[in-house]
Specification:
Length: about 100
């Protein structure tokens, strides 16, 4: 009984062998391409996120304290986040830049 089943399975695999080899080859390369594509997309998204976070002006603001409990007394919930981009209360910590902006 088991020998018959073994022979039938062996012949079935031998008859499917010309189809299995190319399909496994294509599937393997498809997985490699999908993996590379997902790494590319993740890197692109991380770069975009980093560029967006570099637009946050808090670190150069006059009101930024650097204290981990209260980073900004003016907008404590927006400090160092994307919501701080374009903050209306931003003033440069550099006094020379502050006075040069005021004279314009």
């Amino acid at each position: 009984m088991f020998q018959l089943l073994h022979v039938l399975l062996w012949r079935l695999l031998q008859s499917l062998h010309p189809l299995l080899v190319p399909s496994c080859f294509i599937a393997a390369w498809g997985l490699v391409i999908l993996g590379l594509w997902s790494v590319w997309v993740a890197a692109r998204d991380a770069l975009h996120r980093a560029q967006q976070m570099h637009q946050v002006p808090c670190a150069t603001c006059r009101y930024f304290s650097g204290d981990r409990h209260l980073k900004c007394p003016v907008h404590p919930y927006q400090a160092l986040s994307e919501a701080a981009i374009g903050c209306t209360d931003f003033e440069s910590a550099d006094p020379l830049q502050r006075y040069s902006d005021a004279s314009r």
